[in-house]
Amino acid sequence: MKTFIQRKNFLFWASIIFTGIFSIWAVVSPTGMTAALWSLLGQYNSTFSWFTMPLPVILLVISFYLAFSKFGKIKLGQADTKPEMSTFAWIGTLFTAGIGIGIVNFGVAEPLVHYLQSPVGISSGISPAQAAENGMKYSMFIWGLPAWAIYTMAGLVIGYFAYYKGKKFLPGEPIAAGFSDKHWAVSVAVLANIVAAGAAALTIAAHIAIGIFQIQNAVKSVSGFNISSDTGSIALLLIMFVIYTLAAILPIQKGMATLGKLNTIVAVILMIYVFLITNSTLIMRLVTLNIRHAFLDVFSVGFTTFPFSDQSWFNSWPNTIMIWWFSWTPFLGIFIARISKGRTIRQIVTMSILVPTFFLILWFSVFAGNGFWNAFFGDGKIIHFIANNPENVYLSFIMVLKELPGFAITGPIFLILVIVFLATATTSGMISLSIITSNGPENAPRNRIVLWSVLTTMIAFSNIATGTLDGVKAVGVIIGIPFMFFVLLSISGMYRQMNLDYSKNLLTAAEKNQKLIDKLADGKKES
């Protein structure tokens, strides 16, 4: 059995079977699949929702402990290993791969949804101003430090074993190597790898489908053309297929780094433009407030579970989104590890958690701030749309741009941003998925990248054509549940190994010093 699971193509065929089962189920019985999976999620939330929110905060504490402890100077690689990307390209690639099109979909809607639906929102009877602040507070928690702690720790454990210990780039490798003295470690590691590959394929397919919907809406808003037909969807999918496949088969320093830099530049340009043409004083007040929310309120939010309130919002938004973040860890962890070669644990933790969080503070302040401005001082049509169209809240972002002057400029920029965000996150997923299903090499084989690009694009089209997107998203969320435990096991395995390596290095250094002392003593005797 052990020899069989170590074969090069075992993970590929296992992931094909895993992905195929859920994809066929989603197309044949989308309603039944969605109901079954959301029912499972409901059962989890009814019993363990208290566990989901504090967990990312715990990972945040662990990450900063590692960064500023004796382990912080450990480099992913040898002492002379150099980073493959510039710092700007590395941060841009980290950020755009980790967030993807999500900040466009929810950059306006998320705080407004919490304002409307949460137990600390407008429905609770508190003042609209306080409800709006609470909406921002929960958005900062969901998208800020805790989310990036999840991604960072997932990447760190894989990177440590791959570059410092010479192991494979596989999600289960930290479990197998970190607990090599336990009889269960290999079996759990294999399970983690199989589920990781299947989760990656289905989550990427869902991400592509959501991105296509957003591009179609952007094209219609900017140009007036309706390309939401099957023919239009196929054309868009083919264009995106060429972009993300080409970027994935190029060396990371060229393909992914270029997309990451482009994405960052376009996002910053759009954000600065909107900041300058709107109420900049209000936005800066929001920036100040959101810094407090992101850094000072993280513990209070993470350990608030509303035990005496209706759990509908708590389970469907904060809890579910946190689980969704964990469903991204199998492939995003590999990607973060792959692009962080040559950087220390301290660099990885501080840069990949703090920089994206500061960017998101600005992003939500600018765009959600304008959404709230429309609700409080405008005609309120954006918040009314969100309240009446819960399945299409992502359209609120472009509604904000259309309400502002200069849509002839911001509209095309928005369209470019959506396309590049979709391409960047999909490219990182293709690279990681191909690495996993090729048994963990450092660089993904090109033929495997092309194959997975074809397969996930086909799954995405079947989701679009049959309207089965909810089912595939449900798979992604459900798969995130076991990965909460896989990540904890991986961190424990890494910590065990770090302590062994640290003690061994100290012993080696002491032996070298003793040899030097003995050599000097012998020299004095001879003289």
UniProtKB/TrEMBL annotation:
Its main location: membrane. It is a multi-pass membrane protein. It is found in: Cell membrane. Pfam families: BCCT (PF02028). It comes from the Bacteria. InterPro entries: BCCT_transptr. The chain crosses the membrane at residues 10-28, 48-68, 88-109, 140-163, 184-213, 233-252, 264-287, 317-336, 348-368, 413-437, 449-469, 475-495. The keyword Cell membrane applies. Keywords: Cell membrane, Membrane, Transmembrane, Transmembrane helix, Transport. Belongs to the BCCT transporter (TC 2.A.15) family. This is BCCT family transporter. The lineage of its organism: Bacteria, Bacillati, Bacillota, Bacilli, Lactobacillales.
